[in-house]
Amino acid sequence: MTEFNHAQTFQSRIETIISLLGSPMGLARGAGLSRRVIDNYRTGQSDPSRERLIALAEAAGVTVEWLATGKGPMHRPSHAAPPGHETSPAAIDAELLSRVIDGVSSVVCEAGQALTSNHQAETTARLYAEIVAAVPRADRSAREGALAMALAHLRRDIRTTAPGPATPGPADPGTGSRDIPDPP
Question: Are residues 42 and 108 in the same domain?
C-alpha cells in the first residue's frame, strides 16, 4: 500500500475527500454533518471532533490517520480502488485533469457565464472524480468519451439554470443568447 507523508493542510485533505465523494454536500450527507460544518472545515474556521473526524474518514473510505495528519495510507484496505482506477492524490492523471479544466472553462465561457473560482474548482473536481471512478486510466478513448459526455451535460445544465437573456433590440445588437453546440 502506498504511504503518504504530505505536507498538505487539513483543508486540502478535506478538498481531496470532497472530490472523492463528488461534492461538499455528498461528504456532508455521508458523514451525517451539515454543509456549513464541511465549509467550516474547508476554510479552516474549525476542526472536527474525534467523532466527526471518524465519520468523515468512514464516509470517504480513507484512514483517520491520513485525514488527520496526511501520514500513512490514504485508503482503508476495504476501500482500495479497483485495478486501473485511481483515487489518491499521487495518482492524478495530469493530462485528463488539464483537459477537464480546459473543458469546464470553455463551456462556461461559451455560455457567457461567470462562475466563482470556488464553483469552477468544485465543478472541475466533480467531473474529474466521476471520470476517474468510472473509467480505467489505460482506456484513454473511453475517458475522452466520458469527458465529452460530462461537458455536454454541463452545457445542458448551464442552459437550463442560466437566467434568460434580454431579447436584443435595435439599440443593442449582438446581445442575447448564444446556443452552445453539442459536442460532435
Answer: no
